[in-house]
Amino acid sequence: xxxxxxxxxxxxxxxxxxxxxxxxxxxxxxxxxxxxxxxxxxxxxxxxxxxxxxxxxxxxxxxxxxxxxxxxxxxxxxxxxxxxxxxxxxxxxxxxxxxxxxxxxxxxxxxxxxxxxxxxxxxxxxxxxxxxxxxxxxxxxxxxxxxxxxxxxxxxxxxxxxxxxxxxxxxxxxxxxxxxxxxxxxxxxxxxxxxxxxxxxxxxxxxxxxxxxxxxxxxxxxxxxxxxxxxxxxxxxxxxxxxxxxxxxxxxxxxxxxxxxxxxxxxxxxxxxxxxxxxxxxxxxxxxxxxxxxxxxxxxxxxxxxxxxxxxxxxxxxxxxxxxxxxxxxxxxxxxxxxxxxxxxxxxxxxxxxxxxxxxxxxxxxxxxxxxxxxxxxxxxxxxxxxxxxxxxxxxxxxxxxxxxxxxxxxxxxxxxxxxxxxxxxxxxxxxxxxxxxxxxxxxxxxxxxxxxxxxxxxxxxxxxxxxxxxxxxxxxxxxxxxxxxxxxxxxxxxxxxxxxxxxxxxxxxxxxxxxxxxxxxxxxxxxxxxxxxxxxxxxxxxxxxxxxxxx
Length: 552
Ligand code: GLC
Ligand code: CA
Known about the structure:
By secondary structure, the protein is an alpha/beta fold.
């Protein structure tokens, strides 16, 4: 029987399915493509796959606009393909985590179509958030709130007879109407969905925007100027971010998860104040929550040290295990961020904010404007440090190739709503979603036989998996070795700092496993021990700048 604590220190590999591997040459990655790569995943040494949404979708937000929660997008395959993929992963000893998007459905969901076709005040509309507009003829939105992707968070509907009607709320794109979680039918339906996938063998769930489900939209709705900022709120008083009631929903989910053997796991994507994150990670709730602190930090010893210490203490206090992540489908790849003057400038995870750093990088676009070599060296050093920490490590497909952000996507080929809703401000997230290069040559670098749905730059060739396979010192071999060693060396979830110069981070794990990272610009001496891994070759027995070594 599987160990029920398997998730606590798992290395979880995120697959963005449309961009991973295309089995039938239509330019879109699919489930059969993933199944074909299971041997690759097994050789990489990961413990679990987190699959971003694979449900039927018009892709208004890369699949986070779900038409039907209990089906597979025909562009990606069938339920039978899903079962085949799950079986192949399980046979390889790899768990499967599915992405669940409960805050909003797509506007093509049966429920939303029914809501639009039904009158004001109907049960069909009560599954979403409909309101009359303000102004003489209801021509103004119910509140002045801005959507996360830019533009208003309310959209006006048109009645069956063509006259302008009520407005509905959408925190994200207008194709993503927010569901009403006060409605028992909505609650019940999601339990059915979670059961559906759990029964099909899914081992855990990643919960999209877990902090937005519960809402208090009693009148009068406050104006933006009266609201606090997401991620900085402390008291649960915001009308939709991080309200306390949301935990009642997850307590219900936990009961369902615990009916399975081993219990299904869950990890919250919750952009909340660090002091409120633990609630999402509670064993009576989802059990684990992402901590994006390192992702938002510069490559800086002081920042890393503070973040690590704080998060490990928090995990101990709550009983969850820590989560660590540098890259995902929403942010600039870390090999690129670390090649910029300040990672924090580019590490703008909140789609739509369009900080200067992000716009600068991607508007310029060429990786030449980033110090690619420095970025990759730091990314490898940071990854080795991350993999030595207690807790779960979340990796994003392509980072094991040292892949850089693809900045040079022409406007006409961009797909991300964050780009379209913020003209000239936010370049969006397409640059980290470009289909992976498997081979240095051939149509779409081995992604498939029929091109790629986002254009791949020529320089992808040098990052191809085939070009790195078996090559000593390649990023791919470095990841494989690190993950293999991590399995061997992993034990209790504790870590201890060893005194070191301010720009060096040195810690030990139980059993004598040591990790040393040199954040400075000069080589430093290594402690006593045998070096078993190094993110770059040692120089004269010393640890070079921007390098991590593991010793035993
Ligand atoms: C999460 C996802 C992001 C998506 C948003 C809306 O932040 O990670 O990709 O756009 O939710 O579903
Ligand atoms: Ca395909």
